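Sequence design from tokenized structure. All designs in this work follow the same two-part layout: the structure record, then the generated sequence. An example of the structure record is given first.
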């Protein structure tokens, strides 16, 4: 009996007790489910969003992902911003037209919608921690 208790205590010492929740990025209202969505998680940079300081990046294939979400594992707690675009022509980059305006659907964390200017870091920054681990993207923006 004592051996069993000691064995259980020994095995429990190897179990991870402070599990950190994954950062979940969930998409709503994605109309086009045939083209890939590129997601970049960034830390602050002076030229955001033109030059992204990417710490993680993912490709979401909407046709294969029913709930349209991504679970980001092992990301340290901290301040981040997310930049997203849907690659409509399959070239792997966000295409831009006149004056640098995106010609493909895009989005940012905090659901920032640019009007007359590109976003600033502060517009898109969010805090990822144990109590705040869900980012909801409410559709992609099409400017042209």
């Amino acid at each position: 009996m004592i051996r069993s208790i000691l064995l259980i205590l020994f095995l429990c010492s190897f179990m991870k007790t402070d599990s950190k929740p994954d950062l979940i990025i969930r998409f709503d209202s994605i109309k086009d489910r045939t083209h890939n969505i590129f997601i970049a998680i960034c830390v602050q940079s002076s030229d955001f969003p033109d030059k992204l300081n990417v710490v993680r990046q993912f490709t979401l294939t909407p046709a294969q992902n029913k709930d349209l979400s991504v679970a980001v594992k092992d990301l340290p707690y901290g301040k981040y911003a997310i930049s997203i675009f849907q690659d409509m022509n399959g070239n792997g980059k966000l295409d831009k037209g006149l004056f640098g305006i995106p010609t493909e659907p895009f989005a940012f964390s905090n659901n920032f919608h640019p009007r007359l200017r590109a976003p600033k870091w502060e517009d898109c920054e969010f805090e990822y921690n144990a109590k705040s681990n869900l980012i909801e993207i409410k559709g992609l923006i099409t400017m042209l």
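The CA atoms of residues 48 and 121 lie 6 Å apart. We note this feature because it recurs in several other targets discussed in the main text.
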